[in-house]
Hints:
Elements: H1 2-6, H2 24-35, E1 38-39, H3 40-50, H4 59-71, E2 75-80, E3 83-88, H5 90-98, H6 100-115, H7 122-145, H8 149-167
Antiparallel strand pairs: 1-3, 2-3
Helix pairs in contact: 2-4, 2-6, 3-4
Amino acid sequence: MMNARRNQGAGGLGPTGRFFGPGELRLAILALVAEGPGHGYQLMGRLADRFNGTYEPSAGSIYPTLQLLEDEGLVRAESEDGRKVYHVTDEGGRVAAERAEEIERLWGRAAGRGEWGMFREPEAAEIVGPALRLVKAAVKALAHAHGDPRVVERIQEIFVDARRRIEDLDPRRNRS
């Protein structure tokens, strides 16, 4: 919990802010190599996939981190088809296993950030404005109702109904 809070600061979990806290990129790359060997660009792609396109790692961050992991004896590089392919060492596998919970939290944060990636699409602007106005109207109604439980319940019903109706528009949900 403390790590999650630390990373929610100015650079934390925002859609454009810094995602990784100190040492976390190192751990993420170690985890990827522990899942399976790969050369630098493959690992960059696998890391980007974890974020559903909302984070694009650069060679300038990946390769120095791979070199650090190699220097620490956590990964080893082998030449395959003219490329350096990184493999986890026994020590690297042990470290990844010991820090499995922390790694899972990283991947959970990555998945959460990836879910927000859709807001980069131009069509999202057509939806976000009206959605925010809807929330503003609900908050305003609540404020004027002075906590009347009937108003709270009715607003909840409206939101639940609207969500269901929108979800029904998703063609993936309507497959037989």
